Automatic annotation (TrEMBL):
<comment type="function">
    <text>Involved in the biosynthesis of the chorismate, which leads to the biosynthesis of aromatic amino acids. Catalyzes the reversible NADPH linked reduction of 3-dehydroshikimate (DHSA) to yield shikimate (SA).</text>
</comment>
<keyword id="KW-0057">Aromatic amino acid biosynthesis</keyword>
<feature type="binding site">
    <location>
        <position position="247"/>
    </location>
    <ligand>
        <name>shikimate</name>
    </ligand>
</feature>
<dbReference type="Pfam" id="PF08501">
    <property type="entry name" value="Shikimate_dh_N"/>
</dbReference>
<feature type="binding site">
    <location>
        <position position="240"/>
    </location>
    <ligand>
        <name>NADP(+)</name>
    </ligand>
</feature>
<comment type="subunit">
    <text>Homodimer.</text>
</comment>
<dbReference type="InterPro" id="IPR006151">
    <property type="entry name" value="Shikm_DH/Glu-tRNA_Rdtase"/>
</dbReference>
<dbReference type="InterPro" id="IPR036291">
    <property type="entry name" value="NAD(P)-bd_dom_sf"/>
</dbReference>
<feature type="binding site">
    <location>
        <position position="77"/>
    </location>
    <ligand>
        <name>NADP(+)</name>
    </ligand>
</feature>
<keyword id="KW-0521">NADP</keyword>
<feature type="binding site">
    <location>
        <position position="61"/>
    </location>
    <ligand>
        <name>shikimate</name>
    </ligand>
</feature>
<feature type="domain" description="Quinate/shikimate 5-dehydrogenase/glutamyl-tRNA reductase">
    <location>
        <begin position="123"/>
        <end position="192"/>
    </location>
</feature>
<feature type="binding site">
    <location>
        <begin position="14"/>
        <end position="16"/>
    </location>
    <ligand>
        <name>shikimate</name>
    </ligand>
</feature>
<dbReference type="InterPro" id="IPR041121">
    <property type="entry name" value="SDH_C"/>
</dbReference>
<dbReference type="InterPro" id="IPR046346">
    <property type="entry name" value="Aminoacid_DH-like_N_sf"/>
</dbReference>
<comment type="pathway">
    <text>Metabolic intermediate biosynthesis; chorismate biosynthesis; chorismate from D-erythrose 4-phosphate and phosphoenolpyruvate: step 4/7.</text>
</comment>
<feature type="binding site">
    <location>
        <position position="219"/>
    </location>
    <ligand>
        <name>shikimate</name>
    </ligand>
</feature>
Length: 271
């Protein structure tokens, strides 16, 4: 039977096995999906061995999303641009193809949760400049968002993304991010702020238009303080769980041949 899995260190916290096993079960596919705890030093050996053990592919998570680019034989344009991969496909000819579906997952979740949002309608305010922000910025630019207002606690990291991804990005100082709130048609938190056990994101939403869509990549809790505040102002909010679920779609489809659906039953099963 075809096998897939998720490679990371540590890996016990990963929701991907619940996600993919739910889909295998729902579609009656004889296959399995397992967590694989792999250290940096063994990464290449393990990845090269997996196809010989019946694996058709794998997801890659922290801390291996960048180093896996050195191991794969083919990289998608998206993986090159983002500088990270989260999905591996083990091809019949023995070659390993690496792709990044995080941006796809972000956009698919946004479209599902905020069907009336349109990329062309105005600027997006992105908070954070880490790995998740890179994938999201690339996806937003690709979707045609005219301007990305980027705020990060460590400003030089935002400046570096501007240098890399171009003038569509305008760096906003972290302590002045709230001045950009009124301009934004979309607000995205890509930091860990608001997650259970982390400090809250201290962003005043004064001036926020009720037409602005607010989304968070944090999904523990599902309703972050940012989303609660935005909802109280009448905004459409999109939680972070859907991004995780949607990023798994392209991999599952390529490995197992069925394009899986993201719906409420899946959300309940994964949470
Ligand atoms: P990920 O891959 O999830 O994006 P990351 O690359 O470690 O993780 O990025 C974490 C992001 O959260 C960064 O933008 C980080 O800001 P810095 O670049 O200044 O470190 C942001 N972040 C984490 N903790 C934060 C805090 N307490 N206050 C503000 N930003 C924080």
């Amino acid at each position: 039977i075809p096998l897939a899995g998720v490679i990371g260190f540590p890996i016990g916290h990963s929701a991907s096995p619940r996600l993919h096993k739910y889909w295998l079960n729902r579609y009656g596919i004889a296959g399995d999906y397992v967590p694989l705890q792999v250290s940096e030093g063994s990464l290449e050996t393990v990845i090269r061995a997996l196809p010989k053990m019946g694996f058709v592919g794998a997801n890659v998570t922290i801390p291996h999303k960048t180093s896996v680019l050195q191991i794969a034989d083919h990289l998608s344009d998206r993986a090159i641009l983002v500088g990270a991969a989260n999905t591996l496909i083990f091809r019949a000819d023995g070659k390993i193809h690496a792709d990044n579906t995080d941006g796809y997952g972000f956009m698919a979740n946004l479209k599902q949760g905020a069907p009336n949002w349109s990329a062309a309608s105005g600027p997006a305010l992105v908070l954070g400049a880490g790995g998740a922000a890179r994938a999201i910025i690339v996806a937003l630019a690709d979707a045609g968002v005219p301007q990305i207002l980027l705020a990060n606690r460590t400003r030089p990291k935002a400046e570096a993304l501007r240098a890399e991804f171009g003038t569509r990005i305008k760096v906003v100082d972290w302590v002045q991010a709230q001045d950009a709130v009124a301009e934004a048609h979309l607000i995205v938190n890509t930091t860990s702020l608001g997650m259970t056990g982390q400090p809250d994101l201290k962003l005043s939403l004064d001036g926020l238009s009720a037409d602005t869509v607010v989304t968070d990549i944090v999904y523990k809790p599902l309703r972050t303080p940012l989303l609660e505040q935005a909802a109280a102002r009448g905004c459409v909010t999109v939680d972070g769980l859907g991004m995780l679920l949607h990023q798994g779609v392209p991999g599952f489809e390529r490995w197992f041949g069925t394009r899986p659906e993201v719906d409420d039953a899946l959300r309940a099963a994964v949470l």
